[in-house]
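Continuing the series of single-chain predictions for the mutant panel. This is the parent chain; the variants come on the following pages.
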Amino acid sequence: MAVIWRLWRAVRVATVSAAAVTLTVVATATFSLMAQLPDAEALMDGRETGAVTVLDQDGLLLGVRGQRFEPISTAEASPSLLEAILSIEDRRFYLHPGLDPIGTLRALYVNYRIGSNVQGGSSISQQVAKLAFLNPKKTYERKLRELPLALALDLRFSKDQILSMYLNRAYLGASAFGFEAAAQRYFQKSAKAVDVAESALLAGLLRAPSRWSPERDFAGAQARGRLVLDAMVDNWAISQAEADAARNKLDRMVPLEKPEIAPFFLDWVVTQIPEELVAPDADYVVRTTFERPAQSASEKAIATVFSGSLANMPDAEASVVVMSPDGAVRAMVGGRDYSSSQFNRAAQAKRQFGSAFKPFLFTAALEAGMGPSAWVNDSRYRIGRWSPRNYGGTYRGWVTLETALAKSSNSVAARLIAQVGVKRTIALARRFGFQGEIPPYPAISLGTFGVSPVEAAAAYAVFANGGYKVTPYTILEIQDPVGSTLWTRPRPNVERAIRPSHAGWMTTMLGAVVTDGTGRRAQLPDGRPVAGKTGTTQNSRDAWFAGFTGDRVAVAWIGKDVSGDLNGMTGGREPAEIWRLTMEELHGGQTYTGLPAKAIPASNNRPIATRAQPQPRYDLKRKNRQTGWFGSRDRSNNRQRNDPLTRSSDR
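Parent structure:
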């Protein structure tokens, strides 16, 4: 018995000692942190950056990135909003010293009884500490650091000041930081004027703002609002009659129309602000190159295809970029649903380009001396262990370079890169603006490297504008909120990428892709000439169509975020269909005159799909043969000369 008593006393002494040490450490940390806390005004504004107000090319509002609203205090906010927040998040906020064990235990019990995460276990002081100073990632280390910070906040500031910090720092979905920004976004009114139903819906977003944002799941936001109303009744904040009236209004609410269009474009514009103007707390008004008809046409085209032939492929994604031949980005769709994924596949994704890269390899062949009518051998060909097969296993024998591109011959592409050289092909790709890693292997002739749709559109714009390098741009002018001009897009330095004749020849060849080759589904019904190229990667993981008319360049891509095939889809199917639908609506009502739009410089424009004939090296009639870059071919006896590659056994 004495042994048990001594053991119990030892445990009790150890427990008391541990508690004393813990309290000493927490108290020391708390008072140390309290002295280091900034002023209340510095903690009141939760904005990490200023606001960027984005306008289209006509000066009409597209949307806002960042937050423009001034912080509000508890004295200014709607009383019903304060009651809703306290009822669902921290009922004992004005009673505890920053930590509330009783409230935590009560929240755990309520959540267990209901079976879902209805009430929060952290006090508002703890949440302010997390929002203002700590990483939001849920870890034990963060929780331990959160405790002394919460105590320090309560010792340094008043309860109203801490609650005001929470009002302005809490994230409520849809890029809205703070209740003022959220009220303006979801209800187009100030947080000073929201009623009981609106307050309940806003407070309900605190648990999972991205999941229950009214722009993503309005029914879920309503359900959360009903739980907040029940919590307000339990907390004696409102009567049951007031809760019933608010619930009826909440049930009658309808989903709000999104206040902005082209969210992927808006996100990308912010990244394009010149570095010399980037400031963490500055507000800007940005006029851009954006065209609403082009955006609407792109979004409708994707919706039409995915509700039709791709209705059975819900996990596939798509993106479209529309650009002027000088590089002005007119529209951007970075994915099918911005609310479910903000990843911009038009600008951020690097996907294999497939056969859509072949025009650049063929351009290298033109620079080496070939012409569209040069003869090439479309037959099995091997470079070391690599022997690419044509799609469908079909080989056509001797064809012109133009036909080889129109039919997207892999074997001809392999022969070309063997003759042109990998280094020369990569150097030419750099001139077209491809910036990513291009591995020095012959397989790049089939586009086995990553390209973004924006990058692809800029490269095809070189063909459309007569051979000048293009840098994609969106911003025309930047002003401050009072209208003073801070920056205007400077006149670009014109840099030639390829000769005008080569741009014209490639335009002719790309026109044949659409009229006689793999891109027939991209033909426009009004007869407007189209030039473009299909692209399909190995195992049908990515499908592309890139092309242009006289005044617009567009790229359509379809693929999956998680690696997977597209059930045999090729670039000549749904991507070409999306491209055609986009251009068809974009050009609808415009009379085709046969002339391209002005590019830089205008004197080098070439009409789309006009036949540009190569100059023979000698008289074709006298010699009865046509000279190409692979040597000369005698048509009378079907014999190829002066080309060691074509004398292989796979002819």
